[in-house]
Amino acid sequence: MKSLVYLDHNATTPPHPEVIEAMNAAQATGWANPSSLHRAGREARRLLDDARERVASLAGVSDRDVLFTSGGTEANNLGLERPFKDNRGLLVTSRLEHPSALAYAESLESRGVVVRWVKPERSGHLDPAAIAAALADRRPGEPALVAIHAVHHETGAIQPVREILARAEALGASVHVDAVQAAGRVDPVIWQGAHTIALAAHKLRGPKGIGAIVARPGVQVRPILRGGGQERGLRPGTVDPITAAGFGAAARRALGGPERYAALAPLRDRIERGVYEVGQLHRTLIEPTITGWRAPHVCHVLVAGWRGDELVAALDLEGICVSSGSACSAGTAEPSPAIVALVGPERARGALRISLGETSTAEDADAFLAALARAISRSGLFSYPNRRLRPRPHRRRRGLDRGGPRPRGGLRRAQGERGRCQRGCAGARTRRGRWRRRSRR
Ligand SMILES: Cc1ncc(COP(=O)(O)O)c(C=O)c1O
Fold it and tell me: Which atom of ligand 1 is nearest the CA belonging to 202?
């Protein structure tokens, strides 16, 4: 069996040995119900309190401001629900959000809340001025919320959260920040300070099934579940002290995370250079999805002529774990709504995300690049099967077309070349370098 090369750290991260150790140690007392008044309950409660303190110091708040949840999804749901008690008000957000916020925004819309979907910049970023302009729709006396992410789960784009927060506050709106991909990875100044913040332990090398919503003092979270009085009655249900102990250990480690992640930038750049070289070698157009400010550990590209999930499957056969979108949407043939919002549905199909983590090495990068080259060359796919992306020879000769790399051996050699396009139609190149279909599969 081939050894596994894991380059999908935005989907989840492997638990750190310190986290496993903390959870093993917690087994002795953490089995009890932390709400029980007896000694066993109090000991379990202590584990929960310690974990809460550690998560609070990661978020730069006091432990009273942290409520444990089942993960990032529930924290985003709570953050978006909070101001819209009477199904009235304005929500400003974008199609770039993670499905846990996007789907909740859609449900609020169907309940009568006005939702303004801000168009993202082509660079992959949100424009604070566009958000401020959308807030102008606010009716006096009605609540207004801006829901944004700090680091994008697919592209790794870092959003100007502080600027958006300042503008929103000046207009009397509150802000919910999905910091699931940001906490422990980028400078906390980027994501701290919002009215509510969503966190998830499993992106910090902690356990799955636990996260937190952090609320500023004076900002009251409204429960979406009905039940007991746990988490100050705002999030009913028994929190597992053992999982919480793992979250606490992960949060403590995550204080030094941004420095460790910053050191991954050269490896990310090496992968990116290698990916474009593979594209040139095999005459496949591979282009970056975003430009500008971004996290140091994510490489997101668009591979023309491929469906990202097919490429992921081909790489998986070689023992390489990468992804074509967010793990929550994996298994659907549809391209990610976030990437569609940036580049349109056709190009979004070829999305490929390589996300590094603390365990990633140069050998992982080399193994990935070699497997990518093999997958692309084996496929027999033509380089520019797509009408829009195909280079136009006459413009190319004049150096006008930057649609992709020039075929090796020049255009004449490419003529007559046979193969299949991405839909499986057999065909060949014509004298003018065009792709002509001969038959259907
Ligand atoms: C940005 C972002 N928000 C929210 C979530 C959901 O977190 P969880 O899987 O803990 O529910 C994820 C998970 O991938 C994410 O990347």
Answer: 10
